[in-house]
């Protein structure tokens, strides 16, 4: 085995797979009237509860200005509200509204099924190996 060639082929495979996953997830979210970033914010709030906006930015890995824009869009749609921390006025929380929570209760199981279907070509062991390998790789640091 030529490790250099295999690493390059694996890289190309990961990139192609990521592009395919992006296309599927974007279409899935479009079906629900959301974009991927809006869904990521709502999914975080749905599973973790209200979050300081700074934490939302850190968790979904987007720029601060983009976070503000995405939350503004979700507020306009009635899915999220902002709530000021009464103990520290500088901290603003993003909170899922009842309408947002109801939407997530409806669409998250459907989204999870879509994701499960994507991985249906892998058996349970292969899926675990893939997840473990990706986790190991994501811990890599160039520092």
Your description of this structure?
Strand 2 and strand 3 form a beta hairpin. The model has no long low-confidence stretch (mean pLDDT 92). Helix 1 packs antiparallel against helix 5. It is built from six helices and three strands. The chain has helices at 3-31, 36-48, 53-60, 64-76, 98-118, 124-138, and strands at 51-52, 80-84, 92-96. With 143 residues, the protein is mainly alpha-helical. Helix content is 69%, strand content 8%. The protein has a three-stranded antiparallel sheet.
Please count the helical segments. Answer: 6
SS content category = mainly alpha
Q: Strand portion, in percent?
A: 5-15%
Helix content: 55-70%
* SSE arrangement, N to C: HHEHHEEHH
How would you sum up the global shape? globular
Q: What is the overall pLDDT average? A: 92
- What's the gyration radius in Å? 18 Å
Low-pLDDT segments: none
Reconstruct the topology from this structure:
Layout: H1 3-31, H2 36-48, E1 51-52, H3 53-60, H4 64-76, E2 80-84, E3 92-96, H5 98-118, H6 124-138
Antiparallel strand pairs: 1-3, 2-3
Helix pairs in contact: 1-5
Could you write a compact summary of the structure shown?
The model has no long low-confidence stretch (mean pLDDT 92).
Q: Which key phrases capture this entry?
A:
mainly alpha, single chain, 6 helices, 143 residues, 3-stranded antiparallel beta sheet, globular
